[in-house]
Amino acid sequence: MSLRDVEVELQREQESFCTEKQGEREPDCIGKQGEIEPDCMELQSERELVCAKLRENNDADILWKALQLFENVPFYTSKKLMFRYTLKGGEMFVDRKSKSITRSSIEMAYKKSLEMEGKVSGPKKLGVFGASYLYPVFIRLGVISCESQAEAPK
Fold it and tell me: For 10-22, what is each residue's pLDDT tens digit?
């Protein structure tokens, strides 16, 4: 499977992503036979556990742990632009931006999505700098529901 095939598959999965169906495939996780490497299966299980814990507890520290587990995973903005992020200290660095998104901005967006009960119709509704990047990440983490994405005006 080529890197481009993996990216196309990730995009399709994110578009139809629900909290029960996380299945992203990272290029480094695909073995020679096209199977997922055991270490990646472990990482996937850890991601699923932390996302479940996040949905149960609504805790900013668990959110940060989840963000750490999804570092360098490809995401797609609403306009289908691929990006990845890294975390350093209390900041998120997106590879498409020169500015960082602070932890306080991330937590404000998280709080806003909780207030809206996960029914956020688009990135602008989060009302923080970097919302266009946080929105797809929150969808993957299960903070924002799939229904809210389906209800969003096209």
Answer: 545 544 443 333 3
Residues 94-110: pLDDT tens digits? 999 889 999 999 999 99
Distance CA 55, CA 53 (A): 5
Q: Tokens at residue 48, please?
A: 């699923």
Residue 93's identity, in one-letter code, is: F
CA 81 – CA 77 distance, rounded (Å): 5
Joined together, the tokens standing for residue 67 give 């963000």
SS3 annotation, 21-71: ECCCCCHHHECCCCCECHHHHHHHHHHHHHHHHHHHHCCHHHHHHHHHHCC
| Contact predicate 27/3, CB 8 Å | yes
Contact (Cβ atoms closer than 8 angstroms) between residue 108 and residue 141: no
* pTM of the full structure: 0.72
String of b and e for 103-134 (b: at least 16 CB within 10 Å)?
A: bebbbbbbebbeeeebebebbebbebbbbbbb
Cα 84 off chain centre by: 10
